[in-house]
Request: fold
Amino acid sequence: MTYEELLIETALADERIIVMTAENRALVRNAPKVLGSRFVDTGITEQTLVGMAAGLALRGRIPIIHALAPFLTMRAFEFIRTDVGIAHLPVKLSGYIPGLLSDGNGPTHQSIEDVAIMRGIPGMEVYCPADEDDLVRSLPAIWSSDAPAYVRINHKKGEYTHASFERGRAEVVAEGTDVTILVYGYLFGNALKAQRILQQEGLSVGLVNMRSLKPVDEAEIIRAAKRSRMLVTIEDHLLTGGLYSIVAEVLLKYGVTVRTLPLALEERWFKPGLLTEVLETEGFTPEKIAGKIYSSSNLLYAE
Reply:
C-alpha cells in the first residue's frame, strides 16, 4: 500500500479527518477528487495552513497537513508551537523531502534541523520512518493518537520488510556485541547494507531502527549500550538536537557510559547535488559508513 492509498482509505473511514496542503500535492494528487470538501489547499502559506488546521482541530477534526519539511517546521514554527503545541491539538504534520532527500535544492530547502526543532515542543511527537513500508505501518497509530505529531515523510521503497509499529518503541533488526547502529529515516537502508559489510569483516553488529524519536525507546538504547562495546548514531540531520543528542541525554539520565560514534552533519549544510553525489560526499554510502565504523572499532579494541 502507498502513502496516498492509506491516507485516502483512512480518511474515507473517518469523516473527522481533513487532508490539507500548502500547494504540496506530490503525495496526494488523487485525494481532492475523492475527498471533495475535506481536501483543502491553502496555497504556499504554511502559517495559514497550520492556523487553519488548529482551528479545525478545536472543532473536533483531525487535520493531516502536508508541506515541504523545511517550510513547515521553520516558517510555521510559531504557529505550530503556539496554536498546536500549547493547545495540544491532534494536528498531524507531514514533512515532505526532509533531510538528504532535498538533495538538489540548496540550503534553503534542506530540512536537517527539523527533529531538533519539533522535539523541543512539549507534547509534540516525532517520527522518522525508514521507507514506505515502515511509513504505512507507522501512520495508523500516529494518526489515531490524540497528540500532535511531526512525521518525516519518506515514501522511498526499501528492501526490508518491517515489523509492526508501536509508538515509543524501536525496531530491533539485529543485536550485536561489538557495535550497535542506531539509525532512522532514509539512511536506514544504507545502514543495513553497512551492517552486512561489517559482519563479513567479522564484527558482531546490531542494527536498531529508531523510527520513534519522541517518545523514544529509552530501554532499547540502554540495552544496546550494555550489550555492545560501541554505539553508532546515523542521521541526515545536524549533529545538534537529533539522534546523537537524544542518545546522549538517555545515557546521562541513566548513568550509562559507552563509546559512541556519531555520523551526522556537523555545523554545516550539505553541498547540493544529486542524492547519490550527496551520499558519497557526506560519507553516507554503505561502504563509507562501514569504513568509519570499522576504523573506530579497531581503535576501540586497540585501547
User: Anything to note?
Assistant: The longest strand covers residues 230-238. The first helix runs from residue 3 to 13. Residues 171-302 form a domain with the Rossmann fold fold (CATH 3.40.50.920). The mean pLDDT is 95.
